[in-house]
Amino acid sequence: MMLLSIDLTFLLEKAVLISAVIAISLVAAMYSTWMERKVAAYMQDRIGPTRAGWGGLLQPLADGLKLFMKEEIIPNASNKFLFVLGPGLAMMTAMMTSAVIPWGKEIHIGEKVVSLQIADINIGILYIFGVVSMGVYGIMIGGWASNNKFSLLAALRGASQMISYELAMGLAIIALLMLTGSLSLRTIVEQQSTGWWYFFKQPLGFLIFLVCAFAETNRTPFDLPEAENELNFGYHQEYSSMKLGFYLFAEYINMFISSALMATLYFGGYDIPFVNDANLVNSWGVNAVAALQIAALFGKIFLFIFFFMWVRWTIPRFRYDQLMNLGWKGMIPLALLNMLVTAAWQLYRHA
Asked: What is the spatial distance between Cα 225 and Cα 205, in angstroms, rounded to a whole number?
């Protein structure tokens, strides 16, 4: 009976945490669309959305309602099951990556200690790469099932782009793992909270990871799968209503999770800069410090999201041959060099 009670408490705790992370990810994706319009307007000396709510704050809700209310259209020549599966798979893989990210250290509810991480597994980075590699299936299935040549070409572009840049991203992570000695994201954050952030030890690795994150999320200047002037809106050309909404939401959720991952791996995660967390706990309490840690992590995330948007409205889209040349002849050799230099440095340190 006691075991059943413990299991129910654990399941309830995880269910609440999962629901909170899903809600935060969806809200972040919704308001990233508003933020993108405002950032673009500011950079182009415009105002941006202002009609729906104060400062246009209700514009994402209006857009979501529009997608819900639009007519569902499934082309007659499409594979209907796969046509529906594609956007669902894209959305599911985007949401699953948040499971291993530590959003804070812990909070105390009475005598109960609750970890602010859905799953602290010792292969957290491998889990993220495994889930991210599944995301390409959502794009490929959607493009192929549409029975549209432009959608298929865009899906092939997206798949080759993601596979190419995953190699360089993986090599950059291998160099980081030589320093951390662990695949657990919480362990990596704790190491940075007691020392230097890994950005200062792996600046080239971070730059490679950042560029590959742009390619993985199909953001400008790597948005070749959605090149409207070439491919008529890309792999989701035949989609409408919330199926289209799922593809668009998945892109913004991927941007949010990529920002959280970069903050976690290279910028200390929930570590509060220039502050000794242990001393702060003694004076403020565990829960107050946890709130500050969450705020610190989200501050870093929003800075990265702003950078994603800044780049979109600053740098023009690459040609496809330039994209592939950069991936295979630029990013991968740089990542290999970074890995070899890191390995040599580690051998020298421990010799």
From this structure: 26
